[in-house]
Design goal:
homotetramer, DNA-binding
DNA sequence: CATGAATGAGTATTCATTCAT
DNA sequence: TATGAATGAATACTCATTCAT
């Protein structure tokens, strides 16, 4: 029975994943509002109604994509943030991770940076809290660095965190909307890191 | 008669402006897609059909708001970018202006930072080009500073420009979505400026 | 004052006629329902509101065109129907007149044959009675001919009248919709006349 | 299973037919333009949206009604036109068939004779070609009769065909709009046939 | 008489969601 | 679980008509 149940879940999970992957693709291509549920179903190779067996509604699909992506990112960030590496390294690593995570998932990047803001309700209800969590992690890291003398103290840690988030978001947006070549993204990451690290240096 | 003629024109301009102001308000409150044309009309105190005497369609209202706002900003930025002030001052001024311009137009800020991305078509067709123009102005200023030895040369000017845009956008977004108190916005601006200026300093 | 009044009326009549002529043109081109009142106004060189100074509403414009055209036709038909000519001549004349009347007013022909049926209300309320009047005139002529031994008696005069009306309507319709060359219309008229006259001949 | 499959198809076909029958009824009553899609849906006992599962749009419903009716008529006409009967019989039969086909479908008759002309686009795009096809069939029969010496040769076969179509259309129109009693329609048919046959007789 | 800006009632069509199979 | 036919609420936009000037 356990096997059966697992098999069931696995089968379900597969279909669920297919739907999510299909949704990321069509959301990225057409935007959230312009995407029809039937288009997601078609791209996923399932019937329209099947989507409602795995998700509450269309909004829920977008929310899931967003939460999954951000949670994945947050888990990594938290790990890096409390690692034993020097603070500069941690910041650099975070930037690299954040951009790298999405580098091979361009569609996901577009969905997260662009589509996310398409529904005011989603933005305020789901994204804002996660956004704050993200800011908290980074700001915490900055504050730790300030306490230990690694970063200058005359600058608000949350302002830095927000600036960093925004900078990376804008870089990703440009990359997602334009012709994205990975090298440029990685180079941008290193320049961005250098900019922020120098900006944070104690003088 | 000149007065009369002015009055006449003003009458029309007034109605157009009333519609735009009403649209900014309801777009900020409910988002572009969740806003009904009839809501804009009601808020503006005109009939539904009147909106179509001044705008091609609902999209056109959002585009106009966005373009007006960005053009206004771009005009100021260009002026500052080529002014005679020291480069540090110019960067600081740009940051202050950009945040200050929207400080007393919180709804407009929300519409520009949030609603803008609600329509993929609008974003790619109208926002992307203006975004690039903005990046060009800032990147040009950075490059000038690099040439004259005011900024470090080992960092790509466009990456800096994008980062700055993103940082300010994120700060504005936080402010627009959260409880906005102007002092915090101004303080954030000065911290952000300091962060970027130190990050750009020649060593 | 009489002069003034006349001048006034003349001025008015001119404008009224301009509107009617413009309406015939655009109705023929686009059909009644697809024609906007503003299009009529533009074609007539007057303001939208002016139309309502001369006509009750859009329907009234079509009705007026139709009634004017049919009344004009009826007046001629009645005159011919009771003339002293041989019955065959009268029938021939009626056919020629009916087709000839519209030959140089192709737009009017299209409006009467096509647009007329576009509004069920108009058709039933205004056209049907006039149609019956028309049928009465022709049927009366046929009946007179039957009484005087010019036409065969074993055929219902109203059926003949309806058939003749329909035949001419179909010929006009083909001509109005297709490439209309007047010679063909006139030739069709003579063939049609011959067909009906032989069909009516006493044997 | 074949039954099941048939039942399934029948279910769909039934719904489609129900919509068409309902549309004929309301179109005949109120005309094409005055009929709301929701009225058709209500009369058919389906939801508004269901209509769009079977038809592209409101126009498509009218077109389908018209094409179905005319194709049905054309099929019969073609059969009669090339049958072995004497030419006079064929003509008589065609007239009887055409009127008879619609005798027990008064609403359909009204839709075809009246509503058809309600949309200029429909008329020119869909009706005109079918009208021409009809004319071709009749004209071909007349021409054959002329070749074989059954009909007089000094009269254009297409003019005769158009006249016959128009005559029958007018008779139907009168019948559809007025108080329709079948006997009168059948009697009118025989009178009309006699009129045209005598008109076509070789002398 | 003439204007044309403003009105707002009116409707075809779409599409997220449901539910009988 | 899966389907997809059916639903029907929801809305941008048009355009005949009005009326202040």
């Amino acid at each position: 029975m356990a096997v059966h149940s697992t098999a069931k879940k696995k089968g379900s999970a597969d279909k669920r994943d297919r739907i999510l992957r299909a949704a990321i693709k069509v959301f990225a291509k057409n935007g959230f509002y312009a995407t029809r549920v039937s288009e997601i179903a078609k791209a996923a190779g399932v019937a329209d109604g099947t989507i409602y067996l795995y998700f509450k509604n269309k909004d829920d699909v977008l929310i899931t994509i967003f939460e999954d992506g951000i949670q994945q990112l947050l888990a990594i960030l938290r790990e890096v943030a409390v690692s034993e590496q020097p603070f500069d390294e941690r910041i650099t690593r975070i930037i690299e991770l954040q951009l790298g995570l999405l580098e091979d998932q361009r569609d996901l990047a577009e969905v997260i940076t662009v589509n996310l803001r398409q529904s005011s309700t989603l933005l305020k209800q789901y994204a804002a809290p996660l956004f704050m969590e993200y800011i908290d992690v980074i700001a915490g890291l900055i504050r730790d660095g300030q306490k230990e003398g690694a970063f200058r103290k005359d600058i608000n840690s949350r302002v830095v965190a927000r600036s960093l988030f925004g900078a990376l978001d804008a870089i990703l947006l440009t990359w997602a909307l334009g012709e994205a070549d990975p090298p440029s993204l990685r180079k941008a990451a290193s320049h961005c890191a250098s900019l922020f690290l120098e900006g944070l240096r104690v003088r």
